Amino acid sequence: YTEAWDADKKSIHVMPDTPDILLAKANAANVSNKLYVKAWEEAKKKGYDMRADAIPIKTAKASRDIASDYKYKETHEKEKGHYIGCPSAKEDPKLAWAARAMALQNDRLYKKAYNDSKTQIHIPVDALSVQAAKECQTLVSDIDYRQYLHQWTCLPDQNDVIHARQAYDLQSDNVYKSDLEWLRGIGWLTEGSVDVVKAKKAQELLNDRLYRTRPEQLKFTSITDSPDVVLAKTNAMQLSDV
C-alpha cells in the first residue's frame, strides 16, 4: 500500500527557478568567504607597479622627514626661553664642566711624558748610593752573619753513637720523671680532691631537703577572731545538720 508512496517520495523534483532556491543561492553567495575575497585574490595575482616617484611614496617620505625633524628638535623647543643665564662663567654648570674636563685633559697631556719615562731609569752600578746600599745589605744579611759548622755524618752502627743514644735516653727519662720522685711513699686520700668536692657541691644543689622547707616546720598561729575565720564558723553552723 505504501510502496508506491515511498517510491514517489524519492523522486521529488524541485524547479531551479523557484523563489526559495533563488533566495538560498543568493544567501550562499553573500556568506561565501571565497566570493568575498575573490576580487582581492585576482588583484594580487596581477601584481602592482609602485615607482619611487609615485605620489604616495613621496608623501610617506615627506611625512617621515617632518616627524623625524620634529622629534629631533623637540627637546630644544622645550628648553627655549628657560635658559636665563649666569652672572659669570664659573656659576654656569655647563661651562664649569667644560673647564674641568679641559683642565683634566691638559693635566694628563702635561704628565704624559713623565709617566712614560718613570719606569725608564738607568743608574750606574758604581754610584755612591748603590755602593752604600750594597754595604748595608751585606751588614744586615743573615747569610754573612751566621757561619754554620760542618755537619759531620756518623754511621748509625758505631759504638760511640749507640752509647750516646742510650745515654740520651736515660737522661731524658730521668728528667721526665724527676718531678715524681718526691711523691714516692706519700699516701693520698680522695677527700679533698677536685672530683669529690665537685660531687659534694652538686649534691647540695640537688638536695630537696635543703632547698625546700616543709609546711609542718613553719611556725604559724591562726587568729581566731579574724573576719574570714568568723565567717567560716558561721557558715559551718548554718550548714550543720545538728
Automatic annotation (TrEMBL):
Keywords, in A-Z order: Actin-binding, Repeat
Entry keyword Cell membrane: no
InterPro entries in the record: NEBU/NEBL (IPR055297), Nebulin-like (IPR013998), Nebulin_repeat (IPR000900)
Classification via Pfam families: Nebulin
One of the record's GO molecular function terms: actin filament binding
SMART domains recorded: NEBU
GO biological process terms on file: cardiac muscle thin filament assembly
Keyword hit for Repeat: yes
GO cellular component, one term: Z disc
Superkingdom, natural source: Eukaryota
Classification via PANTHER family: NEBULIN (PTHR11039)
Name assigned to this protein: NEBU protein
Organism: Erythrocercus mccallii
